[in-house]
Amino acid sequence: MISLDFNFNILTRDLSHYLENQVKVGLFGSGVGLSLVLGFSAAYTCYYLISVAKKPQLISGGKKFYQFLREQCPVVSETYYPTFWCWESRIQTLLRPFVTAKPGVVYRNELIKAADGGQISLDWFDNDDSLSYPDQATRPTVLLLPGLTGTSRESYILHMVQQSRDLGYRCVVFNNRGVSGETLLTPRTYCAANTEDLEAVIEHIQRVYEAAPMMAAGVSMGGMMLANYLGHKGRETCLRGVVVFSAGWDVFECTASLEKPLDRFLFNSYLTSCLQASVHRHRPVLEKCYDIDHVMKARTIREFDERFTSIMFGYPTNDDYYRDASPVHKLKSVQVPMLCLNAADDVFSPSHAIPVEAVKQNPNLAMLITCHGGHIGFLEGLWPRQSTYMDRVFKQFAKAVIEQGSRLKDLS
């Protein structure tokens, strides 16, 4: 103890001596430099608290769903404090994969057959150590859908698996064809508009665990696919609820935003190259049906879709594909409780294209809009290694749907 006190006193004395000398020899030989730093810090703090940290906007088509969310998911009413040193949308989007931790998750992989002879890769986290739901037959299941080129190894997916594990639930990640290392058996991959593989996966899970309640969460394109699936199925689904993060509601507006010079440089070109890399890995089977050399010359996502995706799924034009892929046109048919989280500054899904009016017309829908958060960002805290605002929304909504789902049976 004597040694610790002595070292602390020495450190305090040396630090005081250093600061006194720095102020004396500071800017213009006075404490002006320190004053400027303190003044800037105070001004930045005021700006942050007034203009950056804000409560999200919650919009719902019905009072019952709105009240349910306010009671069971307090996060929807709390002020969102973005990480103060990286609240700008593009920075949040770019940094999330690097600054957030990747929880350790051990999956059990399963390959199931599709109707066309292809195979779909599912990664299961069974959570057999669950204390809340020790019976695997009735243990709640959460289906997770990653983004455009994502897999079960994305940090945002791993965080949702971790949140589900804490709640005692099992998870299964639906990997789109050809992205997670499995062999592509047929010349077909995936798109946001086609939900046949998703339907097959949900039916498979229901057959295996027919007594277990199930909900789903989709991120970016995974969320678009989920929304389109619900629009197609109406009430004919076993899903008790759905939560969607950073979905692109109008594909025309999304691609136009991503084609702006800076966003094309930061995001569009990179995602296009990722899509092309996947095509290249499966070239032997794909080149039998498509002009792969032409596909590999695409420079934007739109060009890639024109040369590959829209052709693969039989659309007369790429515009026809984009129209069918846009969930905004199917929201009126959604008959399952669906919570959607979008950031107003998301360049992938611009704020003017967020379907606020469509949400207001359907009592099964709720839209949560934050001022900041970027695309799958939603970083918060001084050093956002662990939970994000998006993760907290997911955990609270998943728990509410599974444990209080009976209150959501009739929202009309």
From TrEMBL:
> Keyword annotations for this protein?
Hydrolase, Lipid metabolism, Membrane, Phospholipid metabolism, Serine esterase, Signal-anchor, Transmembrane, Transmembrane helix
Q: What are the catalytic residues? A: 220 (charge relay system), 346 (charge relay system), 375 (charge relay system)
Membrane spanning residue stretches: none
User: Where in the cell is the protein located?
Assistant: Membrane
Question: What Gene Ontology terms for biological process does this UniProt record contain?
Answer: medium-chain fatty acid biosynthetic process; medium-chain fatty acid catabolic process; phosphatidylcholine metabolic process
What is the protein's major site of localization?
membrane
Has UniProt tagged this entry with the keyword Transmembrane? yes
Give the signal peptide, or none. Answer: none
Q: Which GO terms describe its cellular component?
A: membrane
Annotated InterPro entries? AB_hydrolase_1, AB_hydrolase_4_CS, AB_hydrolase_4_sf, AB_hydrolase_fold, ABHD4
PANTHER family linked: ABHYDROLASE DOMAIN-CONTAINING PROTEIN, PHOSPHOLIPASE ABHD3
Annotated family: Belongs to the AB hydrolase superfamily. AB hydrolase 4 family.
What does the function comment of this entry state? Phospholipase that may play a role in phospholipids remodeling. May selectively cleave myristate (C14)-containing phosphatidylcholines through its predominant phospholipase 1 activity, cleaving preferentially acyl groups in sn1 position. In parallel, may have a minor phospholipase 2 activity acting on acyl groups in position sn2. In addition to (C14)-containing phosphatidylcholines, may also act on other medium-chain-containing and oxidatively truncated phospholipids.
In Swiss-Prot or TrEMBL terms, this protein is called: Phospholipase ABHD3
